[in-house]
Amino acid sequence: MSNPMTNDQLTQWDHDHFFHPSTHLGQFARREIGNRIIKGAEGVHITDREGHTSLDAFAGLYCVNVGYGRTEIADAIAAQAHELAYFHSYAGHGSEASITLSRMVAERAPEGMNHVYFGMSGSDANETNIKLVWYYNNILGRPEKKKIIARWRGYHGSGLMTGSLTGLELFHNKFDLPLSQVVHTQAPYFYRRDDRSMDEAAFTADCVSKLEALIEREGADTIAAFIGEPVLGTGGIVPPPAGYWDAIQAVLKKHDILLIADEVVTGFGRLGTMMGSDHYGLKPDLITIAKGLTSAYAPLSGSIVSDRMWKVLEQGTDENGPLGHGWTYSAHPIGAAAGVANLKLLDSLNLVGNAGTVGAHLNNAMTQALGDHAHVGEIRGEGMLCAVELVKDRDDRVFFDAGDKTGPRVVAAMLDRGVIARAMPQGDTIGFAPPFCLTRDEADHVVSVTKDAIASVLG
Ligand code: PMP
User: Fold this and answer.
1) Which CATH class is domain 36-66+350-458?
2) Which of 25, 155, 403, 430 is at a distance of 20 to 30 A from 308, taking alpha carbons?
3) How far apart are alpha carbons 366 and 387 in whole angstroms?
4) Cα separation, 140 vs 315, whole angstroms
5) Measured in angstroms, how far is the CA atom of residue 176 from the centroid of ligand 1?
6) What is the 12 CA–ligand 1 centroid distance (Å)?
7) Could you tell me the residue ranges of all domains in the chain?
8) 156 CA distance to ligand 1 centroid (A)?
9) CA distance 300 to 124
10) Do domains 36-66+350-458 and 72-348 have the same CATH topology?
11) For residue 126, which atom of ligand 1 is closest to its CA?
12) Strand 422-423 to strand 113-119: parallel, antiparallel, or no bridges (unpaired)?
């Protein structure tokens, strides 16, 4: 740039004008939390304007799955922008990229899921899913079957409906959420079970019986769908207890309740398998995809629709006219071009395989280094996801007070040492979700920095 802005000038504008999402606005205004202006990135590292480099062990927001600086995707975006930056996809229009990507997604989706509606974010894809569920039940002549069951600690977005589905209080408080059509059931969070005498099988049975009680209370004829992430993400990076998904699906089937698998985090390889649904034997009616679809090189999301639902949607438009649901940017050609290049790269570099093997190495190394630490309650993960839950007292499972900010302090100490991890909201869990191209040496480095940072904060 010929006349570069100074950092001080940008910081002033940042404070004057830029409304940061998910930020403590008062602390930011008082400069109790600083700003960081990211300038560039390569592989698993990001660099800020002051020249500091960090290893990004959270892949942005678990989205830059193929790693930073991939010229194949940048070139595909540039070529698409030159050829056709935009045209809408209403009423039979599309682009080569969006049609090709729909085919590539269907090829990677579970059997019998062959139709893809593209949006821009995970939140809008989940909004689409709920509208499709409601439309479906209206067409089937059961207008009272509309409630959606979500789980406490689930994360499904920040919109009005999706923020309601999200089972984290921060996303409800003072926003008048959740909306009345949403009901929550127990999180499948074994480590935090109320009754510590339960083993995993008993805890799974407890989750199932709580779900059945909820369905009984509300009435199955009022409940349309159940939404869940194959592995709880933002709620703490929590793989389900043994047998959970099989048992839950049996209940849903019995009551004719649709299953929405929110694969915004798990889709396209994060668990070491192409889709989390395959990993856990899920047979969903709808799948939400976003992040890993383009590795965040351009905003793009999608709803994958089962053939069974698709037939009813078609019938609905025959009876009622065109589907009244579309975004200006649905299937944006630039996002679609990024998606095609991204999915090709996943295959050609075997990055899903790498997510499985290096992810297992990361989890094992973390367990070896910290499994016996007095303040580590649990280390858990799956594929290229890992979590370290910090506790005050490991034997009696006493949690730290939220006010101690133990998790955020450890994450800050890690950042000082050049590694980005995430303090997951609600609890003191340190989350890791690195790009799939992470090497074993880099994984070892992340582990040693984590250990060092925990020692510096907790001794
Ligand atoms: N679902 C899940 C499982 C997510 O993790 C997220 C984002 N973290 C969303 C939905 C919402 O996606 P977005 O932020 O793109 O709206």
Assistant:
1) alpha beta
2) 155
3) 9
4) 10
5) 20
6) 30
7) 36-66+350-458, 72-348
8) 5
9) 10
10) no
11) 10
12) unpaired
Segment-wise mean pLDDT, segments of 10 residues, the chain, 459 residues: 81 96 96 95 97 98 98 98 98 97 98 98 98 98 98 98 97 97 98 97 98 98 98 98 98 98 98 98 98 98 98 98 97 98 98 98 98 98 98 97 97 98 96 98 98 96
**Which residues are registered as beta bridge partners of 387?**
380, 431
What residue has token string 């045209």?
A: 87
DSSP string covering 281-336: T---SEEEE-GGGTTTSS--EEEEEEHHHHHHHHHHHHHH-S-S---TTTT-HHHH
State the distance from the centre of ligand 1 to the C-alpha of 369, rounded, in angstroms. Answer: 31
CATH topology of domain 72-348: Aspartate Aminotransferase; domain 2 (3.40.640)
pLDDT given at position 2? 52
User: Does the beta carbon of 262 sit less than 6 angstroms from any atom of ligand 1?
Assistant: yes
pTM higher than 0.80 for the full model?
Answer: yes
- Tell me how far CA of residue 146 lies from CA of 133, 213, 278, 397, 442, in angstroms: 8, 18, 27, 39, 47
Six-digit token string for 16? 């004057």
